[in-house]
Amino acid sequence: MSALRSIGLALLALVLVCGSTAADDIGSFDGAVWRFGMTPKGGGKKLRGAFRVNNHVLFQKSDRSDKDFTEKVGTNHPGARGKTRMVFNKEFQAFDEDKTRHEALGGVARLNMDEKGEWSGEYISEKGRHYEFRCTRIQE
């Protein structure tokens, strides 16, 4: 019985040590980080980026070199089961394949959950441009 107890304590210690190390490597943040892709309907360059969602507020990095997602770029409005509407302000930005920044992309995304951590739907910019929009949760 004491051998089992010793093994149990050793496993618990291993979990605690490994868990704290992993948390230190990731850093501390609130919410989930999502990677997105936007494909213009009718042709054009695909845009990509990332945002963080915390308490239904959407954040992005102000600059690619920023460590944290601190720039408020919109709000999330969950609807019926498996549906959501995200409203992005003019601060919302994305990058194309050439790493050129595209700014002032404010608009609305109406998304459906494809599976846990995967959402897709349509994004309509304030300028009236339509995109296929897909996002994937990459960190929690």
What does this structure look like?
Helix content is 18%, strand content 47%. The chain has 140 residues and is α+β, with helices and mostly antiparallel strands. The chain folds into 2 domains: 1-29; 31-139, Lipocalin. It has an 8-stranded antiparallel beta barrel. The chain has a two-stranded antiparallel ribbon with strand order 6-7. Strand 6 and strand 7 form a beta hairpin. The protein starts with a helix and ends with a strand. Mean pLDDT is 82; it is low at 1-28.
Observed structural traits:
10 strands; 47% strand; two-stranded antiparallel sheet; 8-stranded antiparallel beta barrel; Lipocalin; 2 domains; 140 residues
What characterizes the major β-sheet?
8 strands, antiparallel, barrel
The amount of helix comes to 10-25%
What is the straight-line distance between the termini?
A: 38 Å
Q: Which fold name corresponds to the CATH topology of the largest domain?
A: Lipocalin
N to C succession of SSEs = HEEEEEEEEEE
Number of strands: 10
User: What is the CATH first-level class name of the largest domain?
Assistant: Mainly Beta
Q: In oligomeric terms, what are we looking at?
A: single chain
Shape: globular
Runs with pLDDT <50, length 5+?
A: 1-28
